[in-house]
């Protein structure tokens, strides 16, 4: 399924803008539906943000990674690069913007701490499993031979997918640790069936919008602007597939539903490891899931570091700050500049 029209600059721009508009509208409705579900079920917003919203906004990454391992013309690096790049983008850029706009207040320590521990444990498992796996030769996207630092075996992929099931179960089972859901009893809330329908439609629209934006953005960059392919991968793909999280975070902050945005970032980052890496590894095995030295020794540690900068101060102070947002944004800019320079652009 393709949404691009490469032979026409006009239509490429139209589809690119259509994808951006679709994501903005769908993101707004997605937040409304998620908050309505939280109110109807009387559960904390962070639970909905860390599960339902996160799964919906991670759909573009899941699509890109699964397509990468199933398509013969694709590079085996895409799935790993997409997952780690999205985590860095989610945390450093998107959460950074969210904290600058409206710092988190009254952060629920129990809710955030166990999710952070789950994330750290998952990162550690992935790092160690790749580190002890043997180096392997593979063919990169340009058709040149390259050496991987390690691979993600199918058994690790299965463990990651099972980890997603465990995380989802714990999010529901431990909802009491997230505190009481405080809502106005007299406030009118859309019916459950309407909220669920809106959630599904919005998730589908986010999926289509992200695909429109990424595909046509790549065409504009590569065919018309002549931007190097490495720069496109770092910016267009990682940012494009993370746009649903960006829209959800910004919309949540504007509407005063910051817990939805924070929960979404934490949940989406976990899903990027558990599903975006776990599913392709389960489907195709180690040959399709290779870690280059840069991915293993730079991108993976940086993804963990960004989460530490975001979460640890919140656990200590029980709130976020604009200083955190500024540090995260500057870090993301530095990462992009480094990637640009390293690409020889």
What does this entry look like structurally?
The protein has 345 residues and is mainly alpha-helical. The chain has a single domain (9-178, 189-342), classed as NCX, central ion-binding region (A middle domain of Talin 1, Up-down Bundle), CATH 1.20.1420. Helix content is 74%, strand content 3%. It has helices spanning 9-41, 45-57, 59-70, 78-101, 109-132, 154-173, 192-224, 229-254, 258-274, 278-284, 293-317, 322-342, and strands spanning 136-139, 145-148, 150-151, 290-291. A hairpin with a 5-residue loop joins strand 1 and strand 2. Helix 8 runs antiparallel to helix 9 (258-274) and helix 11 packs antiparallel against helix 12. The chain is globular and about 60 Å long.
How far the N terminus sits from the C terminus, by CA atoms, comes to 31 Å
Number of domains: 1
Mean pLDDT, all residues:
78
Q: Briefly note the structural class of the backbone.
A: mainly alpha
| CATH architecture identity | Up-down Bundle
CATH topology: A middle domain of Talin 1
CATH class group:
Mainly Alpha
Radius of gyration: 19 Å
Regions with little confidence, pLDDT below 50 for 5+ residues: none
* Largest β sheet strand count, sense and barrel closure: 2 strands, antiparallel
Reading the helices and strands in chain order gives HHHHHEEEHHHHHEHH
